[in-house]
Design brief:
There is one protein chain. The chain is α/β, with parallel strands linked by helices and 224 residues long. It has 7 helices and 13 strands. The strands form 3 sheets. Strands 1, 2, 3, 5, 7, 9, 12 and 13 form an 8-stranded mixed sheet that branches.
Length: 224
């Protein structure tokens, strides 16, 4: 995990593309997600998923479960964990799916951060406790937030996330990592980093040789 975190999501995405593990337009979030707690944190972990609604009260007879049931299920997942919460309202973000208290509980359960297409609140407190929140919105009220389901596949800005998926989030968004290919992904990421270092050194040096630069870029593009 630590070595994966040493590369940003862009470099891991490049390695996945080189290995042709999936289509190049799959496996990551569309624009709109940001780290609302500030800075440039990066987190990686296994997804623990849930779905919520916020705009209206729960309908009588609807199947909504208490948060504590989700927390109990959450402990069955490997660590580190990332809470992935989908707001399934027609207009997500009307109520906060995460507050300071909820974040404290999640952190105690070895979650390293949260990803949501909805809203979070208590931003200064979340930042002070170093609990990154990658969200689309912020708000001051819970509204009618209630749990609808958990431990099920969710979608965050075009990225399908199943329980237990390995995900990496940073300033660029969220990337799903094929866990069975981590060794190969790291190998390619290391090799690309070495090639990139050579190219940067060439560009910053005096009297750059464009023939050599072209050759190095060609080698980078043909890395397998």
């Amino acid at each position: 995990m630590n070595e994966l975190l040493s590369f940003d999501t862009c470099k891991i995405a490049n390695a996945i593309e080189v290995l042709k593990l999936r289509l190049r337009n799959e496996g990551f979030t569309q624009p709109g997600l940001r780290c609302v707690t500030g800075g440039f944190p990066a987190i990686i972990g296994y997804a623990v998923t849930s779905k919520v609604r916020c705009a209206n009260p729960p309908m009588r007879g609807a199947t909504s479960r208490d948060l504590t049931d989700w927390w109990a299920k959450l402990r069955e997942r490997p660590v580190p964990r990332v809470a992935v919460i989908q707001d399934i309202d027609d207009q997500p973000g009307q109520g906060a799916v995460l507050s300071q208290m909820h974040a404290e509980v999640l952190r105690s359960l070895q979650c390293c951060g949260v990803v949501t297409n909805g809203s979070v609140r208590n931003i200064p407190s979340l930042a002070a406790m170093s609990f990154p929140a990658f969200a689309c919105h912020v708000t001051m009220s819970h509204a009618y937030v209630h749990l609808v389901d958990f431990g099920v596949p969710v979608e965050i800005l075009g990225l399908d996330v199943s329980p237990g998926d390995l995900i990496h989030a940073d300033v660029h968004g969220v990337l799903s990592i094929p866990a069975q290919h981590v060794d190969d992904i790291l190998r390619v990421a290391r090799e690309r980093e070495q090639r990139l270092t050579k190219i940067v050194d060439l560009c910053r040096g005096t009297g750059v040789s464009f023939d050599r630069l072209k050759a190095e870029i060609h080698e980078l593009e043909n890395l397998q």
